[in-house]
Amino acid sequence: MKRNVSMLLLCLAASLLGIGCGPGFKLNTPDGFVELEDQEEYAFRATTAQGVVMSVRVEPNRPKGNLSFWTDAIDLKLRNIGYTAEASREVKTKSGATGKQLRYTRTVYDRPHIFWLTVFVTDADVFVLETGGDAREFDKAKDDVTKAIEGFVPG
Question: Do the record's keywords include Signal (predicted)?
């Protein structure tokens, strides 16, 4: 069991670096974004011309954990690799799904960057919506990103 938890945490952390699964959800591409094709490491990925990116990863909910477990595990991993936690909040989608959004900052090439990680958990899957970019550009896109997240339907 401990090995399974370690493997899933490793997979979720690795997913931040490019490993992912196929889709089982509905998400409308935010205004101002274009969907990127052939993104084998993501179930969905889109970007603005200025480099703000939104992606979705899907991992099996094994070992079976709840929203609190997975957000705590992901938060610990991100803090350990240098992200600074800024806030967390509950997210309720129009479809009725409840998730949790973790908000972080990190300096990249001497520029502040914003990173939102929104997690939804079903019996079968853990859905991780990642959105981030340079703080100046992210601020311009955050309303459209928020609308897209509110419209997310986990499958």
Answer: yes
